[in-house]
Every structure is written in C-alpha cells, then in structure tokens.
Amino acid sequence: MPKGDGFTMKEGVQESPVGDNLPKIDFSGFILSLYSSGLVQLGKVEDPSTGKKSTNLDMAKHTIEMIAMLEVKTRGNLTKDEESLLKALLSEIRLAYVELRG
Fold first, then answer.
1. pTM score over 0.85
2. Cβ of 29: how many Cβ atoms within 10 Å?
3. Would you say residue 52 lies in a domain?
4. Neighbours of 9 (CB within 10 A)
5. Is residue 35 part of a domain?
6. What is the pLDDT along the chain (102 residues), one digit of tens a residue?
7. Residue 71 is part of which domain span?
8. Contact, 57 vs 43, CB < 8 A?
9. Into how many domains does the chain fold?
C-alpha cells in the first residue's frame, strides 16, 4: 500500500514537507484561519488577496455555521485551551455578524 503524498504525521499533527516557512498545522490554527476568513467576509478586515474590504453575509454565515459544527463535532476531544479559543472566536464572530446584519 502506498505511503501517501509526502505528508507525515508526527504526534497527531500533520507536517508539510515544504519546510518551516509555514505555520504549524494544529486545531487552533485551523479555527483561527476560519475565523479570519469570516472577518474578511464580514468586511471587518481587508481581503489579503485584494487589499479591499467587502461584505458577503451569505459566506460569513456559512463560515460561522462551519465553526459551530466543529464545536459540536469536537466536543470532549479538545484541550481546555482549544475549547476556550473555539468558544471565544465563535461568540465574537456571531456578535459581529448580528451587529452587521442589524
């Protein structure tokens, strides 16, 4: 059976063969990435690819729902720090969405 596509698992964290130039791949980083995407979609921060702020409430809602789904699906499997981060980010982005929606 093939060994995969060049990615290896070390202590439950997937590492890229690209090197140390990329951030560590972990749950907190993944959640922060989704949160950051949500902030871009809400127009709270500039889109890094365009340098402009724009709003897409449908995509923001979708991103919030993905984060909420991860909260449910990972319940009981996160460290205290990961759980706290997830709850805090989800609360913040939900509040930002409600404020924008009016």
1. no
2. 12
3. yes
4. 9
5. yes
6. 444 455 454 555 555 555 567 777 899 999 999 999 999 999 999 999 999 999 999 999 999 999 999 999 999 999 999 999 999 999 999 999 999 998
7. 22-101
8. no
9. 1
